[in-house]
Amino acid sequence: MERDDRDALLARLKVFEGQPAAVAGRGRDPVNLPMIRHWCEAMGDTDPAYTGPDAVAPPTMLQVWTMAGLSGHADRSGPYDALLGLLDAAGCTSVVATDSEQEYTRPLRPGDEVTFDTVIESVSERKATKLGTGYFVTTRTDVRVGPDLAGTHRFRILKYAPADRSRRATARRPRPVVNRDNAGFWEGVRHHRLLVQRCTGCATPRHPWLPGCNACGCPDWDTVEAGGEGTVYSYVVMHHPPFPAFAPAADRESGAAGPYAVGLIELPEGVRMISNVIGVPYDKVRIGLPVRLEFQAYDEELTLPVFRAREDLA
Fold first, then answer.
1. Residue 74 pLDDT more than 80?
2. Taking Cα atoms as reference points, which of 126, 155, 160 lies closest to residue 11?
3. Strands 303-309 and 272-278, sheet pairing
4. Would you report the helix, strand and coil content of the chain in percent, each value rounded to 5?
5. Domain 3-163: CATH superfamily, name plus number
6. pTM to 2 decimals?
């Protein structure tokens, strides 16, 4: 795309900033205990604040109460869909969610009826990324109960034209998103240390890293270094889509992208984390398999913690 065409497209995209993506939307269901229970079970969150007659919903469920479900939103003729259509026409036919931010101003309680308004907050200039070239689109959703603001949810996607994979000499592993909340974790990984956050108020460990304790709400924390031992708590085997960057090392060299195992690893420090299980064929991974922490370099910039099956106990 020529520079004049890019400038013209950006001008058309910028027109959408400030336009509504949803007006006076309503949650499909009131805030309710069954959904809160399912969420807490999935997250392993046992905070008593989320149970009983005085229960509140976990703040991070904010977006849940606004979601349209599998049927989606009926109206596909608004500014947001027009914006996405314009990007599709410009060749940006792929999309990936990149990050989200939430602010909480009022607890949500069972029985609350949620309403929300969403606005297209910003459209970035044209950006070149490892996935391809495109535009970051940010929406802001204000969630209310009656006239009271309960929280704000910002959601950002990249709408992009996929890069020409045939020009890539090698498949590079995607970079992790490093932000102010998890920078300490990635700094530890860079020095081959697996650091677990620990609340200084109630000593509850947590992973992934968060700005505050989900057990007692304390904002203060320190870290403990994981000893390196663990067990497979659960796992999946990835067959599709094939992506060479995630294939085992031997397959990456050949360009093949065979199945690989992703494990939920339970550490004796009291947390679980997701990573690759290596050192054993994917079809030999099992729940309870003992593993040991390793740090694997994928290129000159990226090192990640992975877990190797212990040969003495595999």
1. no
2. 126
3. parallel
4. 20, 35, 45
5. Hotdog Thioesterase (3.10.129.10)
6. 0.59
